[in-house]
Amino acid sequence: MSEHHDHSHAVVTEENSKKLMVALGLTTTFLIVEVVAAFETIPNSV
């Protein structure tokens, strides 16, 4: 059932790795900001 594919797979380069790390850093930063903001908006009436 294995088929032969006539395409190459992406090669990880230094440039791609840096771009992925920047994207991961931005995503993580936004996640942390959203979690902190969520806890800041919880009413203190409990």
TrEMBL record:
Organism of derivation: Psychrobacter glaciei
Name the UniProt record assigns to this protein: Cation transporter
Transmembrane segments: 20-39
Top-level taxon of origin: Bacteria
Keyword Membrane found: yes
Keywords: Membrane, Transmembrane, Transmembrane helix
